[in-house]
Design goal:
homodimer, 274 residues, alpha+beta, eight-stranded antiparallel beta sheet, 11 strands, 22% strand, DNA-binding
Chain lengths: 274, 274
DNA sequence: GTTGACTCTCCCGTCCGGGGAGACCTCAAC
DNA sequence: GTTGAGGTCTCCCCGGACGGGAGAGTCAAC
């Protein structure tokens, strides 16, 4: 059983680099069968080709070295399965990340590489009577909350026999970001003087006035640059924010792909800059 | 225009970390509008929020910092488009890599985490008469070459009115790996004494003898561990390789998913070990 | 003047090795 | 015994894009 193999030959056999073998030795992942105490030369056995191949395979699927060590150390198959499953979850989430990035980049290329294609304009918004529903939501729940909220408002309008009188929108009474929740109001314009039955959906009037506005094209999740462009514009132009911002949904996610969604973002301001 | 902003506030505005801003400064990617020469304090302008957001977006899709610098430096839109397209290709290849790894891991989990599920057996293979076609191929072309090769052999058999007499296989006369090409012979067993018309597909007999054998289950691209297990087994058992290895295709890629493909790998050996 | 928040530079760590320097070793040929 | 070729050792630096922290200096409000 003295089939000792120098590191170079073993590297060729296992298709691992010498550097990698030394590193795995240092990490306690694949220790040479014998190390000459005088020279420090590492010698491996043929029987170590199996573990070496396992390491190669697991590294090829990008499992961290420390986890490979743990996985090889205990030979409980159940535990092994758990570790592999954990790694699968990691790979899956990385895969969806990659997909998200690629989709985003493709949209970016579609619009000519224009990273922030936002033009800010000022307009006078008119006061608008709406059927409104106020909800409380955090960043994780906001999407579903708005969706359900519109369902509720549409339902209330239907029950009252009222026709919508304009594009639906949402008023953000609080800043909702990664770390804070707040109130949003789901609004659908209705004819002035409409009466609604008692309930959470209530008739009132959203005040008008000057607003800074821009239009975002694309999925809702990527709207945040639009907000930043507007707030930056407001600061640069010496205006002051003057009330809750709103998002007006210019087309319908049911009939249009996410890439084509148009959303107008409006910030009420105190005056019209020169 | 002295709207100078300290790094902390600018970091919150742009949602970039202070560390990142300092790094981008150092890399020439986003230089502060003014740096106090006495204290070294960095001060930014509101107008820099735009470039900062662009950087944030491009980093979010994992574009390298150096390329973002280049991309922001020249403002030729055509060049920008090219850079983005190049990055798209990178993201795409990473995506397919991730997919490959995930698929591989899922198959690995399916077979119970058994990384090298190969059992090597020794058997006496019988001499087999075949219709054979020899091709020359490299690692990149081997898959397509074998596929077309089988098409050619099947065609020749059909034209000659001969029925296949066993599972098709391939003999590897040379080692084909990342850096070397070689000859492979595409074989379909036929009844002894078959005569074939002149052409590249020729009748002859593959010799029998003792072989070390194992069965690979899964896509052809992942067969290499099977080879390593066999060659390792041969060395460990003191046998000697004695002729060209063969791959026998036990089922049909047309009727079975890649996960279920069964391929027997046989290495002729000189003698049957004890 | 004091305090507390802010900012600076510098260094180390991440993860998995690759590249190279300079010294040492092994094996075979002569 | 000697020589030479090639194999191997340890040690150090490098990448990418920052994060963490130390120790020192600064700013703004009271």
């Amino acid at each position: 059983m003295d089939d000792l193999i120098g590191i170079g030959r073993f590297a060729r056999m296992s298709r691992l680099s010498i550097k990698a073998l030394r590193f795995y030795d240092e990490q306690g992942l694949l220790t040479p069968a014998w190390v000459d105490p005088a020279t420090g030369y590492r010698y491996y056995r043929r029987a170590q080709a199996g573990p070496a191949e396992a390491i190669r395979v697991l590294r090829a699927i990008d499992m961290p070295v420390g986890e490979i060590r743990d996985l090889l150390a205990d030979d409980d198959p159940g535990l092994t399965g758990k570790r592999l499953a954990a790694h699968r979850e990691r790979l899956r989430s990385r895969l969806t990340e990659q997909e998200r990035m690629l989709r985003f980049l493709e949209r970016l290329i579609d619009r000519g590489g224009n990273i922030m294609p936002y033009e800010v304009t000022v307009k006078q918004s008119l006061a608008v009577p709406v059927a409104g529903l106020t909800l409380h939501a955090g960043p994780a729940t906001i999407g579903a909350a708005i969706h359900q909220g519109f369902g509720a408002v549409v339902g209330a309008l239907g029950a009252a026999g009222v026709q919508p009188a304009g594009a639906p929108f949402v008023v953000y009474h609080d800043i909702i970001d990664e770390k804070s929740e707040g109130d949003v109001e789901i609004c659908i314009p209705v004819p002035a003087g409409t009466t609604l039955p008692d309930g959470p959906v209530r008739y009132h009037e959203i005040p008008g006035g000057p607003v800074a506005s821009t239009v975002h094209r694309g999925p809702y999740q990527e709207i945040s640059p639009a907000y930043h462009v507007i707030t930056g514009w407001i600061e640069e132009n010496g205006a002051k924010s003057h009330g809750a911002p709103r998002e007006i949904y210019l087309n319908d996610p049911q009939t249009v792909t996410p890439d084509e969604l148009l959303t107008e973002v409006q910030f009420p301001i105190d005056r019209t800059p020169a």
